[in-house]
Amino acid sequence: MELAQRISALANDNRLAVVRWLAEPRSHFPPQVHADIEEVGVCGVFIADKLGVTPATASAHMKLLVDAGFVTARRLGKWTYFKRDDAALAAIGRDLTEL
Prior knowledge:
Blueprint: H1 3-10, H2 13-23, H3 25-28, H4 37-40, E1 42-43, H5 44-51, H6 55-68, E2 71-76, E3 79-84, H7 86-97
Antiparallel strand pairs: 1-3, 2-3
Helix pairs in contact: 1-6, 5-6
């Protein structure tokens, strides 16, 4: 994905908030039902609730973050769990300093 597209994925207050929250998920989300939050991530339903948006809107935000590589998604049953990819975030920081 091009740098401009990755920057665009972060150019939204809701998506930036999610990326920040996922840095310390235990501080921002309740315990997950199906697995450990550190192991599988945060359920999309909890992300939607915290953002105050519908699950469909949260899903659209999360798709952009996943496509940009900043977040990984893992499906467990009918639920999708999301984790932050710190390496991808560090990489965009390096890319921006090289401009």
